[in-house]
Design a protein that fits this description.
heterodimer, A: 594 residues, alpha/beta, Nucleotidyltransferase, domain 5, DHBP synthase, 3 domains, five-stranded mixed beta sheet, 19% strand, B: 254 residues, mainly alpha, Ferritin, 7 helices, extended, disordered N terminus
Chain lengths: 594, 254
């Protein structure tokens, strides 16, 4: 049975193909279209999935869209009506936006793919999140929580899932919190207030929080209040996201927290104003964590289960995840590699397979590498055409050579195997570097990533030695498998891991099992033999504003435009030609024009 | 062939609109908002040209496109920094008012071009005309910015690069299509015209749609708004219980 899952139209559209109950390909549209956060209908991703499986669209048994468009429209229209007449500016925009394409998904999918309308199905947004979290996790019975900004109406839900090998699967939602009361919207409002992009830069708020003290927690608790039943409610007098399209926060919010940050001004943490913004970030982060911990603690008491599967955009908040693990009572917390909307493509397809069609449960491969594979020979050809230094060799010598490069302080663009699904670079499309000094962190920020100095870099470490360098609690290795938890760097290791230790002494560590990525594991060991510490700095292989690279050619163009010293794709290693070499044809053309 | 010569002279149409441009650029807030928009356009254009560098099989074009893309990214940064400097002096208003953006649609940037599906010759012809139009327009902007030396300097610097871009795109087009480069240029001109028409039509349709929806909003919606508000007042805050089987049927869109 071939089932295609699609998520699209809000941010980060994606497609995933499940064949006989097992995902065979999943990819975000942005990785192919090369437009970051591409929300367009994911035609390229669909083509890639079908091509990967070697099937045509007419061989699909079902195509599942990750949410119910009419239910979403119901929410948009209802909110406009409730905010009448303040919503008069937002109303035409919202209607044109919905009525143009988003409402007619059955017809659109049907016409794009040429499948009959009866094959097009719809899951609920949070159903998709729940399925993505539970059905991909190696657990048979777990509590489930999903939390994001908003789906159709739901913003947070809790429930339970159960599956049996070769048997039936059930996912049951107990209760939910509805829009506009949303932890995701609360966090996004602060993201906008702090001058960052909503739906894109929330992780910057998390990074900034480390530099501040939660001195404004009381103020934040004025805008989000707990309800007697253990949920929460936003005081809508402080918000405008539900009434206008122009601004998330109201004038009253500004009275409470002070003037918002000018997005075009850098944050100077040495000034009182910079500290105020850091304190805002720390305070909203603290309230978010406290709320999630309380909700999950109640869920744990209710279900008595040791495992929690957690999906939705909020599950990208690694600090909150670590606190959930530490304080909720759950022994293990499973966050999928793509907990956001992109991951709903895989969730929708699996939900359809297991629950709609009632197919027996299957254990799924526990890795994030569902995209196209990289071709080292493509890189070799491009680099040779441009006169760069190309070496092609087998794994052993290549790993040794790259370990030498890293030990010599070189920055390496590393591409191997299939592309990761989800926002994190988990070792197949990564920029790797030595993690020891702040100079390396500053060099990466200044010369390659071009990003704010307050944002931390993540480390990667073999699972066998992770506890030597990081304080990973019981169950923490699971969170760290897909870089979903933030844990303290051991005090004695901080001075040797300066580039990846955040200002608060923590790191968003990835622990690597040899089976998940054997070559990268070998590289970590080889690097450890040279430096004494088998830890590398691992950041996503992209430049600011661009999606993570997919093919060798994209890695190559990133390599040429940045100060990455060495590029690896498959068995090919490329270094830039020295500047002493003769003028290129481009230089000659430029001189001619001048 | 006029396209063969580097041009930094504004077109007659642009010259005609000089007083309007002078008025638009006279307000520092409006100026900052326009520069921010240019910054986005240049950066987006840079990404598309970068994509062209990644998909071409011609090594020389790959290197030239890469240079070109880097220039566009730099231009984006120049515009953004200048806008930030202006906004520091004159904080952004919530409603920046009239920008006259429709005056320069697609004058620069890649205008919804599907880079992956374009041949090298079509891409070069399109780029040549885009750069030429941008150079013409930026010349006008530079000339009307007598009162603002730093912004004028930004346009000056960018215009220098546009000359290189105009020239290399044309010489490379002649190289890859020695016999048919004129045909490609004409086709690109027609394509730009068609896109200009589509933009205009879409813009007008958007205005018409917004007007009708706004009228409907005030005429039809008030009773429903009253009902929606009444229902909202009755809603309980906190958890909503989900009944079993609540959304099991996957063939429903609601």
């Amino acid at each position: 049975m071939n089932i295609l899952g699609i998520s699209a139209h809000y941010h980060d559209s994606a497609a995933a193909l499940v064949v006989d109950g097992v995902p065979v390909c999943a990819i975000q549209e942005e990785r192919l279209s090369r437009h970051k956060g591409d929300a367009a209908f994911p035609l390229l991703a669909i083509e890639s999935c079908l091509q990967h499986a070697g099937i045509e669209a007419d061989e699909l048994d079902a195509v599942v869209f990750y949410e119910r468009p009419m239910l979403k429209f119901d929410r948009i229209l209802t909110c406009a009506l409730r905010a009448f007449p303040r919503s008069w500016r937002a109303f035409p925009k919202a209607m044109k936006n919905s009525l143009g394409e988003k409402m007619w998904m059955r017809g659109i999918i049907s016409s794009h793919l040429g499948v009959p309308g009866r094959k097009v199905l719809f899951t609920e947004h949070h159903q998709s999140h729940a399925a993505a979290a539970f059905l991909t996790a190696p657990t048979y019975r777990a509590a489930i929580m999903t939390a994001d900004a908003v789906g159709e109406w739901t913003t947070l839900s809790v429930g339970e899932g159960e599956r049996m090998t070769n048997g039936p699967t059930t996912i049951r939602r107990f209760r939910e919190i509805k829009f506009p009361h949303s932890l995701g919207m609360l966090y996004s409002t602060f993201t906008a207030y702090l001058g960052f992009k909503v739906n894109e830069d929330e992780y910057k708020v998390m990074g900034l929080a480390g530099y501040g003290q939660p001195t404004l927690v009381e103020q934040v608790r004025k805008v989000i209040r707990r309800t007697p039943d253990g949920a929460f409610t936003l005081d809508l007098n402080y918000f405008e996201f539900h009434t206008t399209a122009e601004r998330c926060y109201s004038s009253r919010f500004i009275e409470l927290f002070g003037p918002p940050r000018n997005p075009y001004e850098p944050i100077d943490l040495d000034t009182a104003e910079g500290q105020r913004f850091a304190s805002c970030a720390a305070s909203v982060q603290r309230v978010l964590e406290d709320t999630l911990v309380e909700v999950t603690r109640a869920l744990h008491q209710e279900t008595g289960l040791p495992d929690l599967c957690y999906g939705g955009g909020l599950a990208l908040n690694g600090i909150a995840n670590a606190r959930i693990l530490a304080e909720s009572g759950f022994e293990r917390v499973f966050v999928p590699p793509a907990p956001g909307d992109a991951g709903c493509a895989i969730g929708a397809a699996l939900y359809c397979d297991r629950i709609h069609f009632g197919n027996p449960d299957r254990d799924l491969p526990d890795h994030p590498f569902w995209g196209p594979s990289v071709d080292g020979s493509e890189l070799a050809q491009l680099a040779r055409e441009d006169g760069h230094v190309v070496v092609e060799c087998h794994d052993g010598p290549l790993v040794d050579q790259i370990a030498d490069d890293l030990a010599a302080g070189r920055i390496v663009g590393w591409m191997e195997g299939a592309l990761e699904f989800g926002p994190r670079a988990l070792g197949h499309r990564s920029i790797l570097a030595a993690p020891h000094t702040t100079e390396m962190r500053d060099r990466l920020n200044r010369e390659i990533k071009y990003r704010e100095p307050f944002r931390p870099f993540a480390p990667i470490v073999p699972i066998e030695v992770a506890a030597r360098y990081f304080d990973i609690p019981p169950g923490g290795a699971r969170l760290a498998r897909f870089m979903s938890g933030v844990f303290p760097v051991r005090r004695e290791s901080r001075s040797r891991l300066q580039a990846i230790t955040h200002v608060d002494g923590t790191a968003r560590v990835q622990v690597l099992e040899p089976a998940m990525s054997p070559r990268l594991h070998a590289l970590l060991e080889a690097y450890g033999r040279r430096s004494g510490i088998p830890v590398l700095l691992n950041t996503s292989f992209n430049l600011a504003g661009e999606p993570i690279v997919n093919r060798a050619v994209e890695g190559y163009s990133t390599f040429l435009r940045s100060k990455i010293d060495v590029l690896v794709a498959g068995g090919t290693r490329v270094t830039k030609r020295t500047s002493a070499m003769a003028k290129t044809q481009v230089d000659k053309i430029k001189e001619g024009v001048a | 062939m006029d396209s063969a010569r580097p041009q930094e002279r504004p077109t007659a149409f642009d010259r005609m609109l000089t007083p309007l441009h002078r008025w638009i650029w006279s307000d520092s807030n409006r100026c900052a908002q326009k520069l921010l928009r240019f910054s986005e356009t240049e950066t987006d254009g840079g990404r598309d040209i970068l994509r062209a560098a990644e998909v071409t099989s011609d090594p020389l074009l790959r290197r030239l496109y890469l240079e070109h893309a880097l220039d566009e990214f730099r231009h984006g940064a120049l515009f953004r920094h200048r806008a930030a400097a202006l906004l520091k002096v004159s904080p952004s208003r919530s409603n920046p008012g009239f920008h006259g953006d429709w005056l320069a649609p697609g004058g620069h940037g890649l205008d919804d071009l599907q880079v992956d599906g374009e041949s090298d010759s079509d891409m070069l012809a399109f780029l040549h005309l885009s750069e030429k139009a941008a150079a013409s327009r930026f010349t006008v902007y530079r000339d009307v910015m007598q009162h603002d030396a730093p912004t004028r300097a930004v346009f000056e610097e960018i215009l220098h690069d546009e000359t290189f871009h105009m020239n290399y795109t044309l010489t490379q087009l002649v190289r890859v299509e020695p016999e048919r480069h004129r045909r490609h240029l004409w086709r690109a001109r027609l394509s730009r015209l068609w896109k200009a028409y589509l933009r205009l039509a879409t813009g007008l349709a958007g205005i018409l749609g917004s007007t009708l929806l706004t009228i409907q909003y005030f005429v039809l919606l008030p009773p429903f708004a009253w009902l929606a508000k009444r229902a909202a007042r009755r809603e309980r805050s906190g958890w909503t219980m989900v009944s079993p089987g609540h959304s099991d049927a996957l063939d429903r869109q609601y």
